[in-house]
Amino acid sequence: MVAKIPPSSNASANLTYLSHLAKTTTAIKSKLTPPQLSMFRKTVFGHLLDLDLVFNVSLIHKILLREIEDSSTPNTISFNLFGSKVLFRRREFDIISGLKYDRSPVRKDTSPHRLRALYFNDSNDILLSDFEKIYIVTRFEDDFDAAKISIVYLMELVLLGRERTLKYDYTLLGIVDDCETCCNHDWGMMSFDKTIYSLKRGPTKRSKDGGFRKLYSLYGFP
Q: Which residue ranges does the record assign to the DUF1985 domain (predicted)?
C-alpha cells in the first residue's frame, strides 16, 4: 500500500468543514409549522432532522493523511488503517447519510421559475449567505412550498456543504417543484460526488510553495 502523503510529511493542519448539520436542522425545525415539519419528515431527508453527528476535525485529518494510491475502484477513497485497506465508497456514504438510492430517475425537464419568482425575486445570482437570510424571513405561500424550499436549504447548507460566498444552485428549485422528479432524484449521489471530490483533494493538494497545505476545508457531507 503506497501512501499518497509520505509519513515524514504528516503534519498538523487547520481543517474546517462547510456542512453545518446541527445549525441547519435547528433552523428548519424552528421555521416550519407543525404541519410543514410533518410533511418534511416524510421526505427522504426527514431522518436528518434528528441525526446527531460530531465532526472530529483531528480524527478526520489523521485519517486523510493515511490515504493510499488506489486506481482499481472508481469513486472510492482508500486508506491504510492499522495495516488494513479500508474503503470509503457510495455504499459507506449511504450507511452514514441514510440516503440509499433504490429508485429509477425520472428524465424530464424541470423549471425553477415558479419558486424563484415567488421567493427569490426571480434571480439566479443570490449568494448562499443571502439565501440563508431569505429562508429565515420568508413567508411561504403554502405548506408544500415550505417543504420544497427547506429541501433546497438542507441540500445547499448540509449535503453539498458549499462556501457561503457562492451562488445558490437555482436548478434545485425546479427539481423540488416537480413531485415525481423530486421523489425519484438521486440526492445522495449529488452529495457523495461533492464529498468524495473534497476528501480526495483534502491535505494532498499542494500549496503555492509546493508543500502540503496547512489549512483546508471539506465540502459536501464528510
A: 73-196
